[in-house]
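Quick log. Single chain, no ligands specified.
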Amino acid sequence: MKKKIIIIMIAFLLSSIIYHLGSGVSLAQQVSLAISPPLLELFIKPGKSIMVAYKLENHGDPTFLNLKILPFEAKDNLGNIRIKPDFEGPVRFSLDNADLTFDQPFFLKTNNSQQILLRIRIPENITDGDYYYTLLAETIPPTSSEGVGSARAKATIGSNILVTISNSGNIEVKPKITIFSTKGGFELLKNVKFFDSQDKISTILTVANKGKNIIKPEGQITLKGNLGTSATYDIISKNILAESERMVEARLLVPEHSDGGQATPSAEIDQTPPASLVLSGFFIGKYSLSTQIRFGENSPTIFGSTMFYAFPFKIMGGVILTILIVILVIKRDKEE
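-> predicted structure:
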């Protein structure tokens, strides 16, 4: 009798464990979306309209998607943006697809694509300026089936739309260098930075856009040493939104290798912490950094400069420490 009771209890426990394990199974949805073009820059006059064809691809599991348009603004000086929660602005958007509507879900199978025909219309009598929006495609998480916990994966992909409205066809270019200096080191004199000769020297260059239209910087950062050494770094042209500022990046363009590849740029894009340019090598003496930045034809050129000193402090410290140790050893030997 006791054996039967024990067997029944064990069977009950096993069935409970199997039930709980089964009810905890999670069917995760794989989401992989792509949209092209990823960026649209539009220069248009009031009263005009344009139709743009987008391609939305699904490389993940079949899913329902929802389309919407929302405005965005600059979030920081690193090029990140903040999407606003509600629609605003004078630009009007609609879909020319017969089977698609904003905020109405549609189904997209695996490895299938959907063409999105976006109509952009600018009303009459609109004030010149820039307006920034994002076309968003957002997945709709699947509903949970009874007895199975479905992972409610949700993903959003977007294509930014930069709209410049101009009656005259001209744009306003008002750039200003807000920061151009080296980062780190130490100051022995006021506003004069010192570095060790073997240090990597981070340079920060930030440009503010005081105008009401988007601008794209072009130009160089030049490094010159007191021994006649010099190097020129090309500024990477990226958008600076109206009434915002952005850290500008630069890289050294080097000749191609025999295999056709390019050497790694001296300024990495994914730096931590971020910097416009990271100088590496063995520095000694005084160095000057200068920059000149242009913004296309018939636009102003802006200039900036900074300087730093580098000396082999670590090597000198090691040499001095070694000499002191040798002197102490010799002195002790003489005393003995």
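The longest helix spans residues 313-335.
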